[in-house]
């Protein structure tokens, strides 16, 4: 028999008793015989009792804690005692009012129901624990039987004789049972307090700054200028005999892999200085051919220096687009070589050109900083044009994502951005880029670099590729080989890659970025947390690197590569 039927029967018996008492006692009180109207008085009294008792009784026995629980049998069969405000759990993750304690209907395996009772949730959202009804006491709380007392709870012990699954009535909480009286009071009392106290405090802290130039911070590091420290990242340190962080393994797509598997050999370097009449010769091509026929090439920078990686023995061949001379130098372990040209051809002076390319990862993970990067990169071009009035400044754009994305690549050809119309055209494309796609962590980085170095770079120009990214390439042999070839091609053309490592990077991303830079004679750039913009940035542990504003850092590097003289970095908190 259902509990509602039992209650109705009990109430009917109460009504009959009231009628009999009325028939027997009322006439005696008024000194008259029993009449039919007395019966109706008894019936009315019974009706009043029923009107009050039925909703309370039914509510306490079967009322679910949430409408989502309708249709679920509210009676929970267990020997454990219920505590106040407990009820059956609603299916489908229903939300319960604060302070409600509900059964999930699952007994803790290995414990008697009389001792532990039902697994419960404080608010229906995972704040879970157990009832402990041992010793006739219904305490609750904690995630283990030994933590059953809820912290800060001051409720009285519940009636341990109540049936499981019923809601016991707390006399101190009878008023909240009336929905129409308590809910409006709660809304009018609590909401204004929240609005006036919390919102003014939290909004200024969470509101992001408006994207504009001169906000992002970064640091630059030239591993060719600190070559011995670079080698220590791969070899055992002579002082403590420990291997460097790039000497071992990393966890890649297919499990553990070694950094060496990428084939980016930067441990065998020959520094070649090329001059004419005591002056540095720019853009001379230096090629090392090993005994096995392998070739490694690089071009001299504005200081006449080329870094050739890949071997330490063979024959060096040095040529220049400004001379018909060809110099060959045998090497066998030499680390530094000097080559002097005697004559230059009577040629027209090479145009003074700065060629820049932005290669930018625009996958979803770049979303925290891309809006700011767009403004920074646009400002850099303006400032470089202003600082080099006698030079042509050309810019190309390449945005990339990954396999499966609708727009995997977006390339915009070189344009002379000293022309305001061409600058606005490129700037419009840049500012419309949105972070989306990507899926897994690795991206189409190797394909993007392969595409970038194959574009129309001009011989004799200052060539810089700023690669902005936060994740490495895919790690299988095909992608590793493509990345190696792209970097080698950049070095042969004299394209200096200056990678900018964004937030969310890891050790493999650092390895990729620094390898791109050192093998092409570029500079490694890593963004920092000083700005407070974006997620946390990976720390490459370079304490001597000066933290600057990103746009000023890039301008400093561009002007330095173009003139051969690099300005000193200015700390971001000292910059005006």
Descriptive notes:
The chain has 576 residues and is of the alpha/beta class. The termini are far apart. The chain is built from eleven helices and 23 strands. The protein has an eight-stranded mixed sheet with strand order 19-18-17-20-21-22-6-23, sandwiched between helices. It has a five-stranded mixed sheet with strand order 1-2-3-4-5, with no helix packed on it. The protein folds into five domains: 3-62, no CATH class; 79-173, no CATH class; 174-207, no CATH class; 269-341, Immunoglobulins (Immunoglobulin-like, Sandwich); 352-563, Rossmann fold. Strand 20 (462-469), helix 9 (477-493) and strand 21 (495-501) form a beta-alpha-beta unit. The radius of gyration is 39 Å and the shape is globular. The protein has helices spanning 3-30, 36-62, 179-197, 199-206, 227-232, 370-387, 420-431, 445-453, 477-493, 507-520, 550-563, and strands at 86-88, 101-107, 118-121, 128-132, 139-141, 217-221, 249-252, 255-258, 269-276, 279-280, 285-289, 295-299, 305-309, 313-320, 323-332, 336-341, 353-361, 392-400, 409-416, 462-469, 495-501, 524-527, 547-549.
């Amino acid at each position: 028999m259902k509990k509602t039927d039992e209650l109705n029967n009990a109430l009917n018996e109460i009504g009959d008793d009231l009628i009999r008492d009325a028939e027997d006692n009322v006439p005696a009180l008024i000194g008259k015989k029993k009449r039919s109207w007395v019966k109706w008085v008894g019936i009315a009294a019974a009706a009043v009792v029923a009107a009050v008792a039925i909703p309370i009784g039914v509510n306490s026995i079967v009322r679910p804690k949430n409408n989502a629980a309708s249709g679920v049998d509210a009676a929970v069969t267990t020997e454990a005692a219920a505590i106040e405000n407990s009820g059956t759990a609603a299916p489908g993750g229903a939300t319960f009012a604060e302070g409600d304690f509900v059964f999930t209907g699952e007994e803790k395996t290995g414990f008697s129901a009389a001792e532990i009772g039902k697994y419960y949730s404080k608010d229906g959202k995972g704040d879970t624990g157990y009832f402990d009804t041992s010793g006739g006491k219904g305490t609750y709380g904690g995630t283990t039987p030994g933590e059953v007392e809820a912290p800060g709870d001051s409720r009285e012990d519940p009636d341990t004789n109540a049936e499981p699954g019923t809601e016991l009535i707390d006399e101190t909480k009878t008023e909240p049972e009336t929905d129409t009286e308590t809910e409006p009071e709660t809304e009018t009392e609590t909401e204004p307090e929240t609005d006036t106290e919390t919102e003014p405090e939290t909004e200024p802290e969470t509101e992001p700054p408006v994207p504009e130039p001169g906000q992002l911070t970064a640091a630059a590091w030239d591993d060719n200028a600190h070559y011995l420290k670079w080698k220590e990242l791969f070899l055992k340190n002579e002082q403590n005999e420990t291997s460097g962080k790039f000497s071992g393994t990393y966890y890649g797509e297919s499990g553990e892999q070694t950094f060496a598997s990428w084939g980016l050999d930067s441990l065998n370097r020959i520094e070649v200085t090329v001059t004419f009449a005591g002056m540095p010769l720019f853009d001379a091509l230096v090629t090392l051919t090993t005994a096995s026929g392998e070739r490694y090439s690089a071009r001299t920078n504005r200081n006449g220096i080329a870094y050739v990686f890949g071997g330490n023995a063979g024959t060096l061949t040095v040529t220049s687009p400004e001379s018909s001379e060809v110099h060959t130098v045998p090497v066998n372990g030499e680390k530094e070589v000097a080559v002097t040209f005697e004559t230059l051809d009577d040629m027209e002076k090479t145009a003074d050109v700065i060629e820049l390319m932005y290669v930018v990862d625009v996958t979803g993970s770049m979303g925290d900083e891309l809006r700011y990067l767009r403004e920074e990169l646009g400002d850099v071009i303006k400032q470089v044009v202003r600082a080099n009035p006698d030079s042509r400044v050309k810019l190309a754009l390449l945005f990339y994502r990954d396999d499966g994305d609708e727009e995997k690549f977006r390339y915009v050809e070189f344009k002379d951005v000293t022309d305001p119309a061409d600058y606005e055209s490129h700037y419009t494309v840049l500012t419309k880029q949105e972070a989306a796609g990507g899926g897994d962590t690795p991206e189409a980085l190797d394909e993007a670099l392969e595409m970038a170095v194959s574009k129309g770079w001009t011989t004799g120009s200052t060539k810089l590729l700023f690669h902005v990214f936060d994740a490495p390439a895919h790690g299988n042999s095909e992608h590793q080989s493509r990345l190696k070839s792209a970097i080698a091609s950049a070095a042969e053309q004299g394209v200096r890659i200056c990678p900018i490592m964004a937030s969310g990077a890891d050790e493999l991303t650092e390895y990729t970025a620094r390898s791109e830079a050192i093998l092409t004679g570029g500079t490694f750039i890593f963004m920092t947390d000083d700005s407070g913009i974006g997620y946390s940035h990976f720390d490459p542990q370079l304490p001597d690197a000066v933290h600057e504003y990103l746009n000023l850092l890039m301008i400093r590097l561009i002007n330095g590569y173009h003139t051969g003289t690099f300005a000193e970095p200015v700390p971001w908190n000292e910059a005006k």
